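Hi R.,

Here's the chain you asked about this morning:
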Amino acid sequence: MKRFVILGGGESGVGTALLGKAKGYEVFVSDKGEMKKKYKDVLIHHEIEWEDNQHSEHKILNADIVMKSPGIPDKVSLVKQIREADIPIVSEIEFASKYTDATLVAITGSNGKTTTASLTHHILKQELSIGLAGNIGDSFAKQIMEEDYENYVLEVSSFQLDDIKYFKPKIAILTNITPDHLDRYDYKFENYIASKFRIVENQTEDDFFIYDADDPVIESWLNSNPIKSKKLSFSLTKVVENGAYIKDKDIIITVDNNQITMPIKKLALDGKHNVKNAMAASTAAHLLKIRKQTIRESLENFQGVEHRLENVLRINKVQYINDSKATNVNATYFALESMQAPTVWIVGGEDKGNDYKELFQFVNEKVKAIICLGVDNAKLMETFGNMVDVIIETQFMSEAVKIAYKIASAGDNVLLSPACASFDLFENYEDRGRQFKEAVRKL
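And here is the predicted structure, written out as tokens:
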């Protein structure tokens, strides 16, 4: 019996453990931190051996195969030891995809992948048997074991793509590439780019690659790296023969000379970036032969994703917006770009070497006050101090929201769009977003 060791006892780790056991492996789950009770209970119920608050090397280095949580970097000494012992390391999507013949739509990118994945799933589920997994929802491995859908939409991070060998989606979508997580890629942007493009490395000429033709990083990589899959692009500025483009305030989507037209004003979600997300999702739906009417209706009634430009409440004619999922500058760029009213901007957190230059035009045009919410706000204060009349620091969400309430006047927006990771003051971006919504509801 082959020994399968799983590092990380979260959603993907426990899901993989269940599938591994069902496929006849001897499974051991090891988590360096404290595992959540709900996951321990599942492992106990299925009689799978586990440990937390430690990694026992003698129980790990005798593995035949290791699945590591995407959150564990390669530079950790235990991972180095596993590699030195020539034990193969796989990601959950790699391991799980071996056990399904389902059609896979895999979506990656620096920003927009959660919205695009949720929107694609929302359209496809009207007509197909389909699961939503990867970085989102229930674990892919667990769904293969329990639901066995005929199709899956997978939101895939660069960290998950780093540990694939054979993973091959029928349709791959790349929303955009901007510098992010560079601490995991030796601070080399080209390493991060290569990681994103692994999504197409096993595709053949029978598969499809949907991407943003307005993204210079993607265009330049494709010019020097030929790929086998059929390319379909989307663009806000160019005419696209196969894929999606804009003509007279309509989105035109073409696949094999078959066209769909969709008025932009009917899209449920605002902002240029959401036009792109809609283009990517509907191109995939068109490829999978979803009816035009279904695609149109789905784009009109899609409600959006929690913590991503989520309208929380309107109080005294001020709209409070939760964009806690904006953990990098480019995500905040999209948020500020889509603001149609003077904005009180709550920003800050754990800075990943951010360059805020691309935000200057929007800060000058749209931002009336900045509230810095982080342990160390010096860089924000220095960068934006001269651009706005009011800039204030705090380390408490409740206080940040109260200050915003005092500053904002009728017709304004209050936007939480941090441009930073959340780990300095919060458990994760969801925790940060929930605290924001709670504070707003208490006003």
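One quick note: Residues 233 and 388 are 39 Å apart (CA to CA).

Cheers,
M.
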